[in-house]
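Below sits the subject:
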Amino acid sequence: MTVISTEKDTEALHFRLVAEFDAGVERVWRIWADAQQLQRWWGPPTWPATFETYEFEEGGRAAYYMTGPDGEKARGWWRITAVEPPRLLTFVDGFADENGDPVPDMGETAATVTLEDLGGRTRMTMTTAFQSIEQLEQMVEMGMEEGIRAALGQVDALLAEDASV
């Protein structure tokens, strides 16, 4: 995986990351569509994700937590708004409390994931839309970019498993 670019647009309230993978679009799509595969990379290696609910369909919901090195759990949720295999996924996400209920103070973000065929390779663009500049800055300060880069760093090993079968 190569991260091609990252961009924080404070006027549009977007954060965009572009990465490329040495695998076809259908294969890269499965890292999103299959909950078992998703939880192997969603979250940095030191904060692995566990999905408790994953309804991969328009209108579906996801509930997950990431477990930190000290056992601390950070919970999140998704509301999936579009699934167009194998090229488009959109979802609204946010933080959750220990019961899995949304934490309104942290707001919501809207994520759009697109996959583009590059002749056997795949370009993935992830765009996160924020509700305010304060929310965007807070997420950046919390290490959003470093976290997603670390998470995506685990994808190549996952994709290589199929290549060796």
Notes: The radius of gyration is 15 Å. DSSP finds five helices and eight strands in the chain. Strands lie at 2-9, 14-21, 49-54, 61-67, 73-84, 88-96, 108-117, 122-129.
